[in-house]
Amino acid sequence: MSAGRRILITGIASHWGTELARRLERDPRVEQVIGIDTRAPDADLERTELIEVDIRSPVLARLLPATEPDTVVHCGIVWYPEPDKPARALHDINVIGTLQLLAACERTPGLKSVVVRGSAAIYGCEGASPSFYTEEMARTVALRTRFQRDIGELEGYFENFARRHPQLICCMLRYQPEIGPGLSTPLARYLSLPVVPTQMGFDPRLQFVHSEDATGALLKATMDPVRGAVNVAPSGSISLSRAIRLIGRVELPLPHPLFGPMLARVGGGLGIGTLQGDAVRLLRFGRGVDNRRLREELGYEPRFDAVGAIRDLAAHSRGRRVASVPGVGSVLEKIGGSGVSR
Amino acid sequence: MSGPPLSTPEIGAEFLRMMRDGVERGLDPLAAAEAAAMTLPQSLRSSVERMGRRLRGEYHEDEWGFDEEFAEAAYPFFEFLYDRWWRVEATGVDHVPAHGRAMLVSNHAGALFPFDASMITGAIMKRHPLPRWPRFMVLDLAFVLPYVSAFMRKVGGVPASPHNATRILNQDGLMMVFPEGVKGTGKPFGERYRLQRFGRGGFVEIALRTGSPIVPVAVVGSEEIYPMLGNSEVLARAIGAPFVPLTPTFPWLGPLGLIPLPSKWRIEFCEPIDVREFGPDAADDRRVVFEISERVRETIQGKLYENLVKRGSSFF
Asked: What pLDDT score does A323 carry?
């Protein structure tokens, strides 16, 4: 057995980066975890060396080789605007940031693998798209939103990079949106609104990755990466209407042309202000991806399927529900079942 | 409680009376309703229970979004169309394999709403000794329309993509395809029952790759439900549809024009064509693909003419 692994994580302050670092710190095979971001993570990390640097800055090209990583995990892709990362900075962070990072990787001699935590947004979001995208089906539809195009662009750079450096194992993880107890993304906050606005007449098929599986798959890819793209998604799918019912919320159907503008206007007050573009299309047409490669080639078996992830979220959100839905469903069920039980 | 069956208003009155008694005895309304529910017939009680369970999200959907309970709930409407409206006569249903993968290939017609997929499904569900729900390919346009998209998905429709067909067949499903596609539904009334080009034979490639038998299906009657006398290209361009049919009733009678004409239908399932002898690699052999495609097409065309003669008058 060689010396311990040296793993560098970008976007360490993000939920994904922090969770991965926490798991890596407990792994005896890992000698050193190095985290870079523009700010320190909220949680305490014990044996992670933190470096405050913006991945868009050229300084990275000198800093990165000095840390001598054997693996670089790019968790710095931002899906939703955040207080310190406004919408107009997203393109710079996601595309230019990735480019700078790849340039820095080129100058790092001991590097063996690069793992990027990307997005299934590369498959776009169309009404009539195949029900389960496999990895080779990227770019079969036009990318329509800013985020989809950014992901498409950075995947292009990453593929190029992988071609030019065949000695490196380059792994692109295409994540479906993540949910989990305690995880606060705009989509998770949307699903936990007491009354959930939906687009009238549309009931998309969705896949949410449970946060435990999201971190599990990332850890697996960090320790034993495979070449090429891997979809990270649960098995199966769930319709939005069923997910809302399982979480115990009520649907509020709005005409679909009003859905996006309405969320943009009142979303800020509801705490989901950044749910735009890609997410609006996702909540109209849905998206399903195939996870065979994740299970069989990367060797990670998700603990939760699409329904299980929602059920787990429901089990944990039940306690803190403010205005409990009267539970029309359970009343009807009780009435209907009364003859059976007696 | 048993006795002579009560009429609906009597059931309602009995329920309310029992509930009032319960409340007067000091039960809370929910408990009173629960007790009073004993008077309701079993079928009503179980549908109330199912409604409640569905409202809590406790029902099954498969990975394609097919919702069997929903399909069963929508079934009586299609059963009415099948039995009364179109008086469908189905023959050869036994040719559909009871289990394992199989591809149903049919002619496609019905300009406004092609009902052929639902009637083929009806024939299998009513006449087959071991019925199972087939999945069918749906035109892309339907999947961007509100309500239509959600409905199609829940009753077993999937977006028309070779990837979807391959996956369903590899899961040993029953896949229904219409190789004519829009060319079939959008042809003028004068060309009824004349099969259009079968695309590039993509369905044969999929059958070869997945080793699925092909069951040709001939549907007679679907062409008369919306006789397409003309096509409004202006409207079609405006709404982005491949065509907008003008029938004797649509759009002249408004929503009434959407009611399909009560033609007489016949559906014949033909003997399955086993393509496994060619092996999966034959999918790249254009000659084999076209040969099989042509064979399927000729089988359906022949059976169409045969059944047209057997049917006699179009409407009676």
From this structure: 41
Q: Does the model's pTM come out above 0.95?
A: no
What is the residue extent of each domain of chain B? Answer: 8-55, 68-311
Beta bridge partners of B104: B176, B215
- Residue A145's nearest CA partner among A94, A192, A97, A196 is A94
From B262's Cα to the closest Cα of chain A, the distance in A is: 29
pLDDT digits (tens, 9 = 90+) for A10-19: 999 999 999 9
Q: What is the 3-state secondary structure (H, E, C) of A31-54?
A: EEEEEEECCCCCCCCCCEEEEECC
- For A333, the closest of B35, B52, B159 (CB atoms) is B52
Question: A317 — contact with chain B (CB < 8 Å)?
Answer: no
CA distances for B185 relative to A83, A110, A290, B47, B180, angstroms: 53, 62, 32, 37, 8
Q: Which residues of chain A neighbour B31 with C-beta distances below 8 Å?
A: none
Which A residues, 187 through 216, put their C-beta within 8 Å of a C-beta on chain B?
Answer: 199-203, 205
Q: Which of residues 111-140 of A touch B (CB under 8 A)?
A: 126-132, 134, 137
pLDDT in tens, A152-201: 999 999 999 999 999 999 999 999 999 998 888 888 888 888 889 999 99
- In this structure, the number of other CB atoms found within 10 A of the CB of residue B301 comes to 16
Q: How far is A206 from chain B (nearest CA, A)?
A: 10
Q: Which of A285, A289, A307, A332 to mutate to probe the B interface, most B CBs <10 Å?
A: A332
| DSSP states along B232-260 | -HHHHHHHT-S--EE-SSTTTTGGGGGSP
Among A171, B113, A121, which Cα is nearest to A129's? A121
Task: Give the other-Cβ count within 10 Å of B253's Cβ.
Answer: 12
Distance from CA of B23 to the nearest CA of A (A): 15
H helices present in chain B, as ranges? 8-24, 29-36, 42-55, 68-80, 116-127, 148-154, 162-170, 182-185, 202-210, 233-239, 286-311
> CA–CA separation, B56 vs A325, rounded Å?
11
CB contact under 8 A, A329 and B53: yes
Q: What φ, ψ does residue A217 adopt, rounded to 5°?
A: -70, -40
Per DSSP, A195 falls in state E
CATH 3.40.1130 is the classification of domain B68-311: yes
The dihedral of CA A120, A233, A96, A279: what is its sign? positive
Task: Give bridge partners of residue A52 from the DSSP assignment.
Answer: A37
Which chain B residues are within 8 Å of A127, Cβ to Cβ?
A: 140, 143-144, 149, 159
pLDDT, residue A31, reads 94
Q: Can you tell me the ipTM of this complex? A: 0.88
Nearest to A179 by CA among A79, A310, A39: A310
Cis peptide before A69, with omega less than 30 degrees from 0? no
* DSSP letter (8 states) at residue B90: E
How far is the C-alpha of B57 from the C-alpha of A283, rounded, in Å? 18
Contacts of B19 in chain A (CB under 8 A): none
